[in-house]
Structures are given as C-alpha cells and as structure tokens.
Amino acid sequence: MHIIDSGNVAAATGVKLSRAQVIAAYPITPQTPLTEKLSEFVESEELDAQYIPVESEHSAMAVCIAASTAGTRAFTATSANGLLYMNEQLHWAVGARLPIVMCVANRGIGAPWTVWNDQQDTIAQRDVGWIQIYANDHQQIIDSVIKAFRLAQTVSIPVMVCYDGYLLSHTYMPFDLPDQEKVDEFLPPFKAANFLDPENPGNFNPVTLPDVRPDQSGTTRPGYIEIRHRLQMDLRASLEVYKEIDADYKKDFGRGGHPFVEEYKCDDADFVAVCIGSLSYHLRDVIDAMREDGIPVGVMGVQLYRPFPDQAIVQALAGKKHVIVFEKALSYGNQGALYADIKSALYNAADRPTIQNFILGLGGREIKTEQLLAVLREACAKPGTAEDTPRWVGLKL
Amino acid sequence: MKKDILEIRWHGRGGQGAITAAKIVANAAFASGYKGAVMTPTFGTERRGAAVFTSLKISKEKIYDLSPITTPDMIIVLDHTLLEEVDVAAGLKDDGLVVLNGAKSPEEYDFKGRKVAVCDVTRYGVQAGLPPGIVNSGIIGAFSKATGLVEIDVLLEAIQKEFNGKRPELNAKAAQLAYDNTAVGGSK
Q1: Which residues on chain A are in Cβ contact (under 8 Å) with B67?
Q2: Can you identify the CATH homologous superfamily of domain B6-185?
Q3: A298 close contact with B: CB closer than 8 A
Q4: Beta-sheet strands, E only, within A222-282
Q5: Interface test with A, best of B65, B161, B162 (most A CBs within 10 A)
Q6: Residues A259-292: pLDDT tens digits?
Q7: What angle do CA A260, A266, A272 make, to 5 degrees?
C-alpha cells in the first residue's frame, strides 16, 4: 500500500515495522518530526517500545548503548550539532559492537547556526566506525531502516541511515509501506550472544591492556589493537553481508539491488557525475537534458559510504573518461571527503578517469537545475583540464 | 525544467492548513494515476499567522527535482488578505491560473490577464457547519472546479481520509459547497 507522507514519517514507520524496543531521543530540527511520530506510535500502542525522553543527544546515545547492551533493539535519531554532541558515545557504541540503528536527517553544522541541509554532520563522522547508508528518496529511507536493523545485528556494528534534511525529511512523496508480516520474516528478533543480565553478571568493555593477556582460565585474550583490528576486518566483511541482505530484501519486497552505488545511464557514459543523497536523483533530470543533446553522461549515487565500497566504485568508474564529484560537505583544509576517497580507490585502477570536485549547497543554499546543467556541461566539454582543488558552485562573492 | 510537471503553489497563513490541503490533493492525484506527487513546504521558521507557501508538483512520472517552485502553473490562495502582503503571483506563468478564497467576483481581481477562479470558501465552510476560519477543505473544492485536474469525488474521499476523526463529513461538505459555488472568470 502506498501512502504520501514526509521522509521523517517514512523513517519512523520503518522503525515501527522493525519493532524497535527502546527509543531514546532529543529533539533537533529537522529530525524532530521523526521521533515525535515514534512517540505517537508508542503512546497509541502501535509500537511496543520504551520511549525514553532524555536531556541531550549524548544521553540519547548513552541510553541506546545501555538498552542494546541489555539485549534490546535500540533506536535514536538526530541531526547536525546533536550528532556531534553524541560523538564520544558513537565511538563507544561501535567499540562495544552494539547493533544500534540511528537516523540522521542531514543538516549543516553551526557556527554560524543553520537549520538547513548539507551533509557535513555525517561525513564528519565517517571515521568513527559506524556503517553509513544514504537514502535518495522516501522509499529508500523506509527500506534502508529495515535493512539497517538486520545488518546491525548480523555484524554487531551500529548503522546510521542518513537522508537530506528538509529536502527529504520534510518533503511529502508517495512510498510503499512494507507489509508487517513480511518484515517480521525478513528481520528476526534481536538475540544478543552476550548481554547485560542480572542472573549472569559480567564485565563489559573493561580496561584493556596494550598487549594480549591470559584470562582467569588461562585463555589468551586480545589486547586493544587486536580488538580494533577485528572491528576493521568485520567492517570490511560487512560489505558482502550487506550485499546479501539487500538481495534478500529485493527477493522479499522487490526493491533494491544496488546496495553500494545506484547508477543512472552510466553503462555507455563517458562522463559520470557522482554524489551522495537526493542530489543524485535531482541530477537525473540534468542527465536527461544533456542526453538529449547527445552528451554521453550518467549519474551515480553512493548509497553506502562506510565501509567504503571501493571495488564497486572502481568497477563503475574505471574506463570512463571523466568523473565529476558533487559534495555537500568538505574535509576542511583539504578537499571533498568523497572525492578524496574515490580518487584513492581509483589510484590502482588500470584505466582510471580524470576527476574533479565541486562543493555546493552548504547550509541549504538552493541547488538549481540550470546551475547543475551549466556546471556539468562545462565539465564534460573540457575533461582532463580540471584542477585538483575543489570548485564551489553558486558562490555569491 | 521538465515540461510534463504541473507546478502548483499554495499560499496561506501559518496554521491555516495549506500543507494539509496540498497533501490531500497530492493523495488524490496519486490515486488518479499521477505517479509523481511531491509536496515541498517552505523550509525554515514558520509561525502561526505568518504568510507561508508550499509547493506541489504533479506528474505522470516519478519526480526527481525537489527544489521549490519558481514558475508555477497555478497558485492557490487560502486567504485574500495575503494579496496585500505577498506577491502571490510571482513567477506565475502567463497562461497560469489563480484560485482564490475571496468574496468578490473574479472580474474584480487583476492578475495581469491570467485566469482567476474565486470562491468565498470562508462562508461556505461555515455554511457546511465548520467553525469559522476552516478553509483548507473548501479550497480543494474550488481547486477541483477551476482546474478539473482531479475529480471532485476522488478529492472528497481524500478529504474524508485526511480529516479522519476531525469532522470528515463536514469538511467534505465544505469542499462540495465550494465546488458548486466557484466562479471562474476569464482574463481581463
């Protein structure tokens, strides 16, 4: 059944269908309607969960950590400075290997204050160790939330589902509601192997020594570096796990099949625009217009940013003439983070394209179709001449 | 940029329900076979009573461009007093249409030659039994009569569904009354 509603409601409905058991959140624009909706679901008993209002985002994540450690399915949501305030707890959640799922309605970071969209908030969290999935429309939001819960509990790593604030969070569009019974089949209840249990007390995440050590029974236990190495290995392995989960979802619900990158008219393209989030859909209109003029161009949205799907990126871009990376975020003092990651992935490719970087839309600056068209036309007309320094689109200096 | 997308901009005051009205039309349009129905409220710092607008795009195909409307095909004005505060017709196409909640006849409004449809939605809301000032259901009736874009029956059903628990029958009646009493004027 299709409904027309906001991206925040799509996310909240995905959480309801996933039968989250503990929700802790602190309001922040543009995420707030998501957790408001969840509190309504809990109040009306449509969702059997504990809704715990907290005094800050740091506490929201702390509650999720406790709830997840106790073996329950935990969820929170935030944006921008709220996400940054959680940062220390984000590291804890992933180090403790807790399958928490969080939605982030992407918003620019203060100072100066902005409530509008860019992606600096989540891109700045790329090195924390959370898995990051990005949605391009409401259907992908609700589907990604459901897949995220299964991925998180399969690999014991927390997952962020990110979507553009306002552009998706507050925009209404049609999307299909997955059937509850089918979701229940797809997403079995969370059963933690080890969890906080009064009947069986234990220590979780105590001080770990630099070197390995024998425990009470004489078994060699890992040191900090071994534990961190395991996280890295498991994160890399989760690429394959997510691919399988996505394939399963497609089998059950008929949607998906592009877990890492979503390509549009890329097969025969010489030029490929790359970006994250709803902009990759907006660019489809631009691609269509340029195709009418005979320019062989396509667009690719990156759907999974961490772990970075480098092989899928290389497969999609090697052999192309020129790649144009649009970003609503920046690794300040360097370049766009996605641009740098793609360049790095392509470094060892046999037939690597030239590549350039555009920064745009920061703090909600409107991105006009005509603007994208002009930028992309120019980039395709003179491939290979671009500098490595990012160019900014639409600056009014 | 896409030529097959119909762009409708709704003007109201914060709290008046322009977003709900646009959402109802989006639902009815989707039910009528329009696969693309995207409604984008103004982003930022709305407050009660202030002039607000919301963008509704309708298309037979999925819509990918979520940016706000700048050159609407139609504007729907829930409150005629906005005409004194806001250039509601900004960017309106030359062959565009204005649907207005107002008490005067279409000939008395000047939108530089564009077609104007007028209905005293406020009055018909009260006549339907709604509290004074509820205009977002009625304006949908006027919209249907003036545009013919979505059948009134589909809209009435969408109204009843949206106002579930909030006087659905009276809101539908207000829309029907407005539909029956919308005057569509030519250009002047």
Answers
A1: 282, 366-369
A2: Pyruvate-ferredoxin oxidoreductase, PFOR, domain III (3.40.920.10)
A3: no
A4: 261-264, 271-275
A5: B65
A6: 999 999 999 999 999 999 999 999 999 999 999 9
A7: 85
